[in-house]
Amino acid sequence: MSRTTTLQTTQNTALQGELSPDSILQLAFGFWASKALLTAVSLDLFSTLSQAPLDADSVTSRLGLHPRGTRDWLDALVALRLLERQDGLYRNSPDSELFLDRAKPTYIGGMIEMMDRRLYGYWGRLTEALKTGHPQNEVLNSRDPDLDLFAALYADPDRLRHFLGAMTGISRMTARAIAAAFDWSEVGSFVDVGCAQGGCTVEIARTHPHLTGIGFDLQEVEPVFTDYIRACGLTDRIRFEGGSFFAQPIPAAEVIVMGHILHDWDLAQKRVLLAKAYAALPTGGRLIVYDAMIDDQRREHAFGLLMSLNMLIETNGGFDYTGADCLGWMREAGFRDGRVTPLTATHSMAVAIK
């Protein structure tokens, strides 16, 4: 069958209603819905409505908005199942109430705030990233060829604090899943490598009161980490250790956790980090690596593949990977008995033994 005949057949099938461009168009317009949500978090709409339901005029006044677009925006959020409306009053949906109210410990909006302030604009340069292979974020116009994302972020205390809070937002539910899925009963200590604010460190320690933990990250992180650990009431069991995991040994413990770390680096750097984890563990110690691991066939896990594109935009050489990739690198480093366990709809962990 010729290409022309195939095209005509496809067109006829589409005209008969068997095919539709709707899913393609919905995907193309997806940034509309995304920006409606990002803006709502940025304006703290959900925290405001958590205090009391409001009508459109009250939302307009409370958030300092212009009346022209507010009602359409609020009703769009209703249609997106982020808000509910009854008798003209808007309130949070159950999911929004739990995860998007800044006052609740389940708040994930820190990551969404960062997406609005940073990633939304940088993803507008995906074409340039694909053509050049270079990051499209704060380092884009730097005169320092060695500058990376973390050096740029960590140089600004306010931007660093915001970034670290975002990491807690994206890691909290995954950390809870790790606390439940991994057998911590015969473990006494762990190190959270690249601990950021301490979101994962806290969830594991809070679930298992017999554990002591170390958060290991660059020295600039210490004030943010310490404040968070103090607020969570865990200063008696969790401490911070500052350093670069490339320049210094990883602190010793029975379990090492690396979450959202390997995907930041190129393959050679990934292998270095796994080798350093192996060196830091005792015989029988275990390494936990978690990321948005791509399915082994690279066909289904769109989030993991898009996260890898985010690493293209954000880092000099980072990329996401499959569970099979990770287990292979672990074996190369000397680990044994590796396995991959799904944790959430987007994340999995690979666990192996020294």
TrEMBL record:
Record domain O-methyltransferase C-terminal: where: 123-336
Domain O-methyltransferase dimerisation, first and last residues per copy: 25-101
Keyword Secreted: no
GO MF annotations in UniProt: methyltransferase activity
Superkingdom assignment: Bacteria
A Pfam match: Methyltransf_2
GO-annotated biological processes: methylation
Protein's name according to its UniProt entry: Methyltransferase
Species of the source: Dongia soli
Lineage start: Bacteria, Pseudomonadati, Pseudomonadota, Alphaproteobacteria, Rhodospirillales
